[in-house]
Specification:
Elements (H helix, E strand, L loop, with lengths): L1 H5 L2 E7 L4 H16 L3 E7 L14 E5 L5 H37 L2 E9 L4 H7 L5 E5 L3 H17 L34 H11 L7 E4 L3 H15 L3 E3 L3 H4 L13 H7 L6 E5 L8 H14 L2 E5 L12 H9 L4 E4 L4 H6 L3 E6 L3 H10 L3 E3 L5 H12 L3 E3 L6 H12 L2 H21 L4 H11 L2
Parallel strand pairs: 1-2, 1-4, 2-3, 4-5, 5-6, 6-7, 8-9, 8-11, 9-10, 11-12, 12-13
The structure holds uridine-5'-diphosphate-xylopyranose.
Length: 453
């Protein structure tokens, strides 16, 4: 009895990167660990702070002090912003951690592990001074991790020249990286290559991390996982898709408009194209109008997420654009959708996506084939895997023009080719379900990881 009372509580400290696509999977991982009996602390930056809902009341949320503003993200772009954030947070996080550890001892708690998003690499430098068990969480695909490594190594050989293929032929495949072409390497539309390379050098540095957890599945990315295992020489745990592992919890930074589910309820089975470009992709007004025309010509219904502020140039105000588009028949437009619920809806037949990794996993998890329109970084590689490896998507390249949009939508929604993709997507869906089941590879991987705590 006494021994039981004296047993220390085991706490895991998790540090998300402050972006929607990174917050969601780390909270899902926290839920899975909490279910296994661990106490949870989430240390978030003030920037993009997830307001913890009632569903997360079992977790402790703390803030890492920093002074970054929305305007910094706008002015610097995501790459430079993350580098600045790492510099700002290192000292404040270390100070906070020191005090936190003292407090934990007084209440008989033990921090068994610190899990940090790969883009919050400053955490490794801070925790090693306290000799804490630390682990990297990669919220992008294993292939994206490999691409970052390769890009950073190619750049080290002779800078930009090696990132463009021989003689600047960006269409060429990168050796031993099928199906990635030089143009699919995770360069960013927001920053010069040097900035991406600096960031990747840090995200690929394992330091004292004892292992890496990846939100992916063996059956999707076995060769990239093996590559990483060889290169990093520490255990690599593929434990995804995390949204299928953990119970659902609200992690949206924006308010979800659930009215679109009522609209979907009125649509025929597999008749709707769902369009969403994630949490920070931007579009030009011209592209939006070309897409709208193409969708109308395709004769398919659509549910379109247009985030406030996501349309870059505006000869027309967003309000006007909305008005023009809602007069289109067969369309429903929302500012932010309950995406997982939408993809699980029987009315949805295809997903027009920027191919962010979360969106990709959520679509594969529901057996929904995709029209891939990547915008930046890892999204390009994800689109290639969807089209060339898993064969459940078609990529739209080049300028967005109404005829191109119409053809892509028809290929997926009307043609036999689309039927075949749908069949393959449903097979993959079953494989992912098996992976997270009691006998599955992701389930086993999570158990193996927990044994190390
Ligand atoms: C970013 C990068 O773009 C992505 O490539 C990287 O893999 C993770 O970080 P983001 O652009 O936000 O993420 O895309 P994605 O990874 O797809 O994440 C978006 C999340 O927002 C998904 O979980 C999706 O379900 C959710 N979402 C999106 C909504 O809940 N509602 C919406 O209307 C749109």
């Amino acid at each position: 009895m006494e021994e039981k009372l004296a047993r220390r509580r085991r706490r895991v400290l998790l540090i998300p990167a402050p972006a929607q696509g990174h917050i969601t999977p780390i909270i899902q991982l926290a839920k899975a660990l909490h279910f296994k009996g661990f106490s949870i602390t989430i240390a978030q930056t003030k920037f993009n702070y997830l307001n913890p809902s009632k569903n997360l009341s079992d977790f402790q949320f703390v803030t890492i002090p920093e002074s970054l503003q929305e305007s910094d993200l706008k002015n610097l772009g995501p790459g430079r912003f993350m580098i600045k954030l790492a510099k700002e947070c290192y000292v404040s996080f270390k100070d906070w951690l020191g005090q936190f550890l003292v407090k934990q001892q007084t209440i008989n708690e033990e921090i068994v592990c610190v899990i940090y998003d790969e883009f919050m690499y400053f955490v490794e430098a801070a925790v090693k001074e306290f000799k804490l068990h630390n682990v990297i969480l990669s919220t992008t695909s294993a292939s994206a991790f490999v691409c970052r490594f390769v890009m950073f190594k190619l750049y080290a050989i002779d800078g930009l020249a090696h990132l463009k293929g021989s003689g600047g032929r960006e269409e060429e495949l990168v050796p031993e990286l099928y199906p990635i072409r030089y143009k699919d390497l995770p360069t960013s539309v927001f920053a010069p290559v040097e900035i991406s390379v600096e960031l990747f050098k840090n995200t690929c540095y394992k330091g004292t991390a004892s292992s890496i957890i990846i939100n992916t599945v063996r059956c999707l990315e076995i060769s990239s996982l093996e590559w990483l295992q060889r290169e990093l020489a520490i255990p690599v745990y593929p434990i995804g898709p995390l949204h299928m592992v953990a119970s659902a919890s609200p992690t949206s930074l924006l308010e979800e408009d659930k009215s679109c589910i009522k609209w979907l309820n009125k649509q025929k089975s597999s008749s709707v194209v769902y369009i969403s470009l994630g949490s920070f992709t931007m579009m030009e007004t011209k592209e939006v109008l070309e897409m709208a025309s193409g969708l109308v010509s395709s004769n398919q219904s659509f549910l379109w997420v247009i985030r406030p502020g996501s349309i870059r140039t505006s000869e027309m105000s967003e309000e006007e654009l909305f008005r023009k588009m809602v007069t289109l028949e067969r369309g429903c437009i929302v500012k932010w959708a309950p995406q997982k619920q939408v993809l699980a809806h029987s009315a949805v037949g295809a997903f027009w996506s920027h191919c962010g990794w979360n969106s990709t996993l959520e679509s594969l998890g529901e057996g929904v084939p995709m029209i891939c329109r990547p915008f930046t970084t890892d999204q390009k590689g994800n689109a290639r895997y969807l089209e060339c490896v898993w064969k459940v998507g078609i990529q739209v390249e080049g300028e967005i023009e109404r005829g191109v949009v119409e053809r892509a939508v028809k290929r997926l929604m009307v043609d036999e080719e689309g039927e075949e993709m749908k069949r393959r997507a449903l097979i993959l869906k079953e494989k992912l379900k098996v992976s997270v089941s009691a006998e599955g590879s992701s389930h086993k991987s999570l158990d193996d990881f927990i044994k190390t705590l």
